[in-house]
Amino acid sequence: MIARIFPPEEIIDAAIELPLSKSMSNRALIINALTPGAAPLSTVAQCDDTEAVRTALATDAFAGNTVNVGPAGTAMRFLTAYFACIPGSDVILDGNERMRERPIGPLVDALRSCGADIEYADAEGFPPLRIKGCRLHGGEVEMPGTISSQFASALLMVAPTFSSPLRLTLKGEIASLPYIDMSIGMMQRSGAIAERYGNIIDVEPGDYKPSDAPIERDWSAASYWYQIAAMSGGWITLRQMSMPSLQGDSAIAKIFEQLGVFTEQAEDDPSSVCLNPSPEVYSRINMNLADMPDIAQTMVVACCMMGLPFRIEGLETLRIKETDRLEALRSEAAKLSFRLDIPAEGVIEWTGARIPVRDVLPIETYGDHRMAMAFAPVSIFLAGLMITGAECVTKSYPEYWDHLRQAGFTVEEYDSLDDIPAIEQEEEGQI
């Protein structure tokens, strides 16, 4: 699908109810599946990623079936650990072409050190995997902290099923630490004994207990509304948001103060937060997003469109996401005349340099939901901006285009570029 987007005709004043957190939902599904006597969860995020986990958990795991999670990286990591700890399971765990390029070796190595029977069905270190489940044991396990936090979370969530305690040591700087803490927090509220001491995490064996703790609204999805508020100067209310939150991305409320967005609880509804414009905007943005790399695209696009030079560090994990997000950002920002630099691994910056652009070409998503949602607000400045592969938002936020419409945007959907009519003459100067 190609989306062509036009901005609201008036200043934005909208109230949005965001989807449930997919990160919390995926963790809740795995923990629930490992909980003796627990009823299936009924209230979780409705998106492609959680559906991949739900479908896999409903598969006959004892018949040698192939479980294909498509592009769902979280599902691949969590299910690798899940099937490995289920005695008698026998599955081939696979994904799409991009998934077969995303490394999973560190998690497989950690699980094997706990007794897991996992073989690579093709390239060493990458899916697909042949997994035969058994009762795993704990012990001393080391894992690089600089790789995806989902590797650590996958191992930790299955550790209560082990026959002996697990001590996981994360070596070096820990990437996306709040996501590991989210996993530990959700394990604890389901009865697990798990504690983190710096880079060391201890988990005791023992049964999970059924939990009725609710899934929070998605703070990662909220980042796009903070971006829209910053770029438009409008007023946005986000309903039913948890503050404080288990989600590390809730830190965007503080981060976006640098871009002129002030967050406060709604006077008439303490469960809602109001994103209010502020004249206090930094002239340059410098930050490390190692704890929350999923908002990097949002920040990069917002800073460029607001004319704020920036340097963002801590983005090493972006190379192995749905696409190479650093290169994707550099390529697509160039279409909007911004020359981004990647001066070192995990760093992206903009000094203010521009390059000549005659026509704004459609923005490519590379199948990455966060590329689509980060670039859509550019339409506030460039009416009629086109985004290809726009259907990829279903991975985490299927309601995104409808929510833009609710906020006053016009979003037209087309099957191909040939189907798109020319923009009326009076609007040509905006593109």
Describe this protein's structure:
The chain contains 12 helices and 18 strands. It is an alpha+beta fold. The protein folds into 2 domains: 2-20 and 216-416, UDP-n-acetylglucosamine1-carboxyvinyl-transferase, Chain (Alpha-beta prism), CATH 3.65.10; 22-203, UDP-n-acetylglucosamine1-carboxyvinyl-transferase, Chain (Alpha-beta prism), CATH 3.65.10.10. The strands form 5 sheets. The chain has a 4-stranded mixed sheet. β3 (65-68), α3 and β4 (90-94) form a beta-alpha-beta unit. α3 (73-84) packs parallel to α5 (149-158). The longest helix has 14 residues, at 219-232. 49% of the residues are buried.
Which band does the percent of strand residues land in? 15-25%
Distance between the termini: 21 Å
Task: Specify the CATH architecture of the largest domain.
Answer: Alpha-beta prism
Number of helices: 12
| Helix vs. strand class | alpha+beta
CATH class group of the largest domain:
Alpha Beta
Task: Say how many strands there are.
Answer: 18
| CATH fold-level topology of the largest domain | UDP-n-acetylglucosamine1-carboxyvinyl-transferase, Chain
Coarse shape: globular
Number of domains: 2
